[in-house]
Design goal:
By secondary structure, the protein is of the alpha+beta class. It has eight helices and four strands, in the order H-H-E-H-H-H-E-H-E-H-E-H.
Length: about 220
């Protein structure tokens, strides 16, 4: 039986999935466990839309069409900084290079780079996509709570032999997401997540990123 730390270390972003369905029973089990995430004053700010089949494909088609028509992304919140500084700049660069090396995409292969990015909107071929959204009246503390809920989803899925990939890209065009999924304007789209069974032979799943050692981010006080 896996310990919690084993599951944490085993979890990673998966970008290639088998064409194998995930039962609704399993999805419900994951969400049943994830809902026990902590939240300030027990506010439980998370909302989840489970998308499959035609709806999942419709989301991908509409977002890709917007990109192809040069419609600029208009996310409900800013995920990344306007200017990257160290050590985050190097970590971001290393992450992108590792993926492109695994996929054998060269710097000049702009078309392949575009298709690799568009795979985000296809949930990397996963049979299930999850869309997470939150009431826009809530503040940063509730977004921290949402993060803990998201981690629960990923860890429980990992413990069940499933794989995931959290995806900020699915929040780039929130108006499209809200329209297709009939989500009220009072909600902000936080992110998406691919869920399914990993295709271990897929080149995008062949690498792992390093983590900074404890001593690099920890200070001790007595």
């Amino acid at each position: 039986m896996n310990t919690v730390d084993d599951t944490i270390k085993k979890r990673h972003a998966t970008r290639g999935f088998l064409d194998k369905p995930v039962s609704h029973e399993l999805i419900e089990q994951i969400l049943e466990a994830a809902r026990w995430a902590p939240s300030g004053v027990n506010s439980q700010p998370w909302n989840v839309a489970v998308v499959e089949g035609k709806t999942k494909q419709s989301l991908a088609d509409h977002i890709i069409s917007a990109r192809e028509s040069n419609h600029q992304p208009n996310p409900d919140y800013q995920y990344y900084p306007d200017e990257w500084k160290e050590p985050y700049k190097s970590r971001r660069k290393d992450s992108g290079l590792a993926l492109y090396r695994a996929l054998k995409i060269r710097r000049e292969d702009t078309e392949k780079q575009k298709q690799a990015w568009y795979n985000n909107y296809q949930f990397f071929g996963a049979p299930v996509g999850l869309i997470f959204y939150i009431d826009k009246q809530l503040n940063k503390g509730s977004w921290l709570d949402m993060g803990m809920f998201l981690e629960n989803v990923m860890l429980v899925a990992t413990s069940m032999g499933l794989s995931t990939c959290p995806q900020a890209a699915l929040a780039e065009y929130p108006d499209i997401v809200r329209k297709i999924l009939n989500i009220d304007e009072q909600y902000h789209i936080v992110c998406g997540m691919a869920l399914g069974y990993a295709d271990e032979s897929h080149p995008a799943n062949s690498y792992r990123l390093k983590r900074a050692p404890v001593e690099e981010f920890t200070r001790w006080f007595k």
